[in-house]
Write a structure and sequence with these properties.
heterodimer, A: alpha+beta, Alpha-Beta Plaits, 2 domains, four-stranded antiparallel β-sheet, 41% strand, B: alpha/beta, Rossmann fold, six-stranded parallel β-sheet, 21 helices, 18 strands, 37% helix
């Protein structure tokens, strides 16, 4: 089971180490992790995607809550979240593959943000499924390198809000 | 006023009576500032024991224990002591010196990233970058260490911060931590559920853990048990919550506990777990204690509830506050038949096999020792066979039983007993260890003598690391590997060297008179008790 944790923490040095250290010490999985400042410069948001049994996922929340630098934790399932990931993929191309690459980009809504005579850099900001799909589609063509932000997520707005 | 003066002032504000430590250049400004305040300074012989002494002090005084070390190796030597305190939720404030903050990260002489190294063994840690923050940080540290689930807090102070003048000193009256607000009061709805569940039960059992001591709730919990006649068992850390010879007390649970305590847990229809972690040594199969029974779990730490076992009724809060609330409720409970049954189990329990002649039987010896100790004596058990014998056969009357439970740190007993002495100058204090654990902290005999913190030390000498030898006997067909302690010092000569009165007991014949001699005064004493090398825990 996958679960997303949106963890608001005090923006101090060493806090990321404390949170990440907790995951490694207690053998919790980190599928992805992203950190950034919030609108309040004293507060950072750590978005963690983890997977495990129900009891483990519950422990993650409880143990995170014990950390004194943790201000608030919001946790939700994939269905309850709006999640996005930004990826950059560098691929090698030639006359034969260029068209196919461009078609894939068009279908998935990715854009080409850099290029040379042999290399293209493609950018996509989308759901984790679609970013994964882009990598899968390009894999057969020859990916040179990939950089990704990790998943960022917020809870879906409730219609009654 | 310098940063270092501010730290000393904060210790005064926190009414600290004694600190345990070891100096080095990086913490010298602090030790210099300590000359100006009326707080005892105990020089230990190795830093690990400063943390253990602070732990013994904290457990007996009920206040935060303070230990201090220098940067680098001083700080890293503290770690085992800090981890030991963390595993047993003992409130400590650990202050370490650090290299100049402007040089941090450049691998200077005696630089160690101590806040990073202790991260998983502390409740919180600070690296002080600005001397003006010292009063706030000290206030927060004492607050965090001593509230909620207690534990160690480390404050790392670079030498330039200690030497920096601060504009004005003002000790905050309150802490302002938006992220830290431990639950004290139990939820009223949950308390009602607990009361209802107890009323329905016919075979309830209370299992007390170290959390009861930490909350200072021994009296409240025992009163509750007595009022309704509910039998009580304990974990290792819960020993001495209830007097061992109380008719409602049925011993320690777990793989080294009493058979009848484990039977009581298995056959109960309701378990009230109080301030206990349901850890592996106490409950080897957590799923079994929820089978065919109701489990109530009361703990101050919400993360403990559901960690090892999913309770039917969780109740988060301070145990003392919860039992004060519970005493306001009426409930019916008739478990006389159940207690009778447990008494039958108790009388049917197998008796320990006596060891060979010409040795002291540790079980009989500990029973005799318990008889001779004053009612409120503090008994500190080390780790190993001595610990298992101690928790099996020591009769606690109104005293305390201390040991390193969660971490099982050998060498804990002597420094913890010295720390307990610093907290209480009147009660009898006895440290019981093996010849292995004794040699891990025997250097503290000097600390004991220097600072006039006398304790009575009993060393069970069997020439082996007994518990591991026993394990190797059972698991590796008696292929002993690295457990023979040949080469140990002559304890008589050693006690002469440290000027500590010495007693040796070779068999039980003169045990009574030798013990009388050993315990006759309030001075220090070292007693060597000869144990059959092949003797076992059970």
């Amino acid at each position: 089971m996958k679960r997303l944790y949106s963890v608001l923490v005090e923006n101090r040095s060493g806090v990321l180490m404390k949170v990440a250290g907790l995951f490694s010490r207690r053998m919790f999985n980190i599928d992805s992790l992203a950190v950034g400042e919030t609108d309040d410069p004293n507060v950072s948001c750590i978005t963690i995607v983890s997977s495990g049994e129900k009891g483990t996922l519950e422990q993650i929340e409880k143990q995170l809550n014990k950390k004194i630098d943790v201000i608030k934790i919001k946790t939700f399932s994939e269905e309850e979240s709006i999640s996005r990931e930004l990826i950059l993929v560098k691929v090698k191309y030639n006359k034969n593959t260029r068209k196919e690459i461009m078609e894939i980009c068009e279908i998935l809504g990715a854009s080409i943000v850099d290029m040379s005579k042999t290399l293209l850099t493609i950018q996509l900001c989308d759901t984790p499924e679609r970013t994964a799909l882009l990598i899968q589609m390009l894999a057969s063509i020859s990916i040179v390198e990939v950089a990704r932000t990790g998943v960022l997520a917020l809870q879906k707005c409730n219609l009654s809000d | 006023m310098l940063g270092a003066d501010a730290i000393a002032r904060c210790l005064l504000e926190e009414k600290v009576k004694v600190i345990f430590g070891y100096p080095g250049v990086a913490i010298c400004p602090f030790f210099n500032s300590m000359l100006a305040v009326d707080i005892d300074r105990v020089l230990v012989r190795t830093e690990q024991n400063a943390a253990h002494m602070a732990s013994g002090y904290a457990r007996i005084s009920g206040n935060v224990g303070v230990c201090v070390a220098t940067s680098g190796p001083g700080a890293t030597n503290l770690i085992t002591g800090i981890a030991t305190a963390y595993a047993d939720s003992i409130p400590l404030v650990c202050i370490t010196g650090q290299v100049d903050s402007r040089q941090l990260g450049s691998d200077m002489f005696q630089e160690a990233d101590i806040t990073g190294a202790v991260e998983s063994f502390v409740k919180y840690s600070y690296l002080v970058k600005n001397a003006e923050d010292i009063p706030r940080i000290m206030k927060e540290a004492f607050h965090i260490a001593s509230t909620g689930r207690k534990g160690p807090v480390l404050i790392d102070v670079p030498i330039d911060v200690q030497n920096k003048p601060i504009s004005r000193f003002s000790y905050p009256a309150e802490v302002n931590l938006r992220t830290y607000k431990p639950t004290v009061k139990g939820h009223a709805v949950q308390i009602k559920k607990v009361i209802k569940a107890i009323s329905k039960a016919s075979r309830p059992i209370i299992c007390v853990g170290g959390g009861v001591h930490l909350s200072g709730a021994s009296k409240e919990v025992c009163d509750f048990a007595h009022k309704y006649g509910i039998p009580v068992v304990s974990t290792l850390m819960g020993i001495s919550v209830m007097s061992t010879n109380d008719p409602l007390y049925f011993g320690m649970v777990g793989n080294n506990g009493k058979s009848y305590a484990n039977r009581a847990m298995n056959e109960a229809d309701l378990i009230i777990m109080i301030g206990a972690r349901v850890a592996d040594r106490a409950i080897s199969q957590p799923d079994l204690i929820t089978e065919n029974k109701v489990l109530i779990h009361i703990d101050v730490d919400p993360a403990e509830i559901g960690k090892n076992v999913g309770p039917h009724i969780p109740l988060v809060g301070d145990i003392k506050a919860i039992f004060e609330d519970m005493s306001g409720h009426e409930l019916e409970c008739n478990c006389n038949e159940w207690v009778e049954l447990l008494n039958e189990y108790k009388s049917d329990a197998p008796v320990r096999k006596a060891p060979r002649d010409n040795y002291v039987d540790p079980a009989v010896f500990i029973g005799l020792l318990s008889d001779k100790l004053e009612d409120d004596a503090i008994y500190v058990a080390d780790v190993g066979q001595n610990q298992m014998w101690s928790c099996g056969y020591h009769i606690v009357k109104k005293g305390r039983f201390l040991t390193s439970g969660g971490m099982g740190t050998m060498g804990y007993s002597i420094p913890a007993a010295i720390g307990a002495r610093a907290a209480d100058g009147k009660r009898q204090i006895v440290a019981v260890c093996g010849d292995g654990s004794f040699q891990m902290s025997m250097m503290e005999l000097a600390t004991m003598q220097q600072h006039k913190l006398p304790v009575k030390i009993i060393v069970f000498n069997n020439g082996y690391l007994g518990l591991v030898r026993e394990y190797q006997y059972n698991t590796y067909k008696a292929h002993y590997s690295v457990v023979d302690l040949t080469g140990s010092p002559d304890l008589k000569k050693l006690s002469e060297a440290y000027d500590v009165p010495f007693y040796r007991l070779k068999d039980m014949k003169e045990a009574s008179s030798v013990l009388d001699d050993f315990l006759k005064d309030s001075g220090p004493g070292l007693m060597e008790v000869m144990i059959d090398p092949m003797d076992t825990v059970k």
